[in-house]
Protein: LemA family protein
Organism: Oribacterium asaccharolyticum ACB7
Amino acid sequence: MILIPIILVVIFLWFIGESNKLNRYVVLIEESKKTGDITLVKRYDTISEMLKVAKAYAKHEEKVFTELVTMRTGGTVQDTNRVIANQNDVLSQIRAVAENYPDLLSSQQFLNLQKEIASENEDLAAAKRIVNSNIRVFNQAVVSFPTSIVAGIKGMRKFDFLEEELQGKRDLNDLNYDI
């Protein structure tokens, strides 16, 4: 008779423990995403500076300069993926414009900004790895039994990962392995 209340208390305590673990994972994901957002803001500011420098050389290239989104950070993982993709598109367009202006390409300010962007790209890649690592841990917990029961009761679902920029990289499907 006393065994049933003890079992119920143990199950209740286990549920609370698993629930708290999942909540901590969500906080880690949000925290690491905010770090990535800080990097995106820095990158946005650097791109804006590159635009100002490029505008001085190419006043008639207005179309390129108006395509930089006003959104500096993403709210969700999908928003962040869109912001990163948009920033990458704008950078590609700036580089294309710069190729038409040799003086711009050799400008020390432009060269410094390119180095800054390269550094920020490394910081962004590191931030994305941390976010995706935290998402991986959470997703593994959400799909693992018996924690999946707690996640299901709480309505928690797997998070999407931040996308890896594959532009300009070899398609792994095109690799030919001869074994």
About this structure: Helices lie at 3-57, 62-65, 77-99, 102-106, 108-143, 147-154. The radius of gyration is 23 Å.
